[in-house]
């Protein structure tokens, strides 16, 4: 008698699929259906509609739109500034999270609250705040209105909390005893950070960086007052999209939106690959 004959049959409800998951019950299947329907209505169908609208005039029309001198200038400014801001946030956001978790100092709770101010402020109010501080009537004597620095500053302001808030809880959960063990074995602080701390933080940093970049490329309200929206100089893609819609050129607006969406997806994939490699090397 073979071992297969001797093995009792498992109940159907306990059988696992080839990938190790349990089969869907009626309730879970209903939940999945509702979730996918909701996701499709809010995300997939609108994105598909934008993609279809972008190529209504054919691929040649799409290409003419995105390579138009003024449109291309807005894309270069938006994507380039968003990438630079994301790199700054990776460093400064991780540093701020480290200070909030590892250090004790007077005013720590106030700083915790202030970090979330860009989340709480309406973006147009943020733009007014930045204009008051760094515009023509600046009490600091710093006037960067109508310059590309204004675009950089606005992006930096609205994206500040993302990496801080994704890294902070992960850093708080790290076991200090692991770092102490590494130090007792002769590892210096740099080696401990690179081989133990950074691999654990990499997914959180990548997630925060992706959110930061995506928020920056779509930002509008915080920079319209300070940047001046000058064509070929400080005009960003969100302003260009609005201008196209106001001129009843929905196809051009959709084309620019598709470029931003594609760039954002590429950045997210690249960040995911980087964080996976960092974790493996760690």
Automatic annotation (TrEMBL):
Signal peptide per UniProt: none
Compartments in which it is found: Membrane
Oligomeric and partner information: The complex is composed of two ATP-binding proteins (CysA), two transmembrane proteins (CysT and CysW) and a solute-binding protein (CysP).
Lineage: Bacteria, Bacillati, Actinomycetota, Actinomycetes, Micromonosporales
InterPro entries given in the database record: CysT_permease, MetI-like, MetI-like_sf, Sulph_transpt2
UniProtKB keywords: Membrane, Sulfate transport, Transmembrane, Transmembrane helix, Transport
Family matches, as SUPFAM superfamilies: MetI-like (SSF161098)
Primary site of residence: membrane
Protein name: Sulfate transport system permease protein CysT
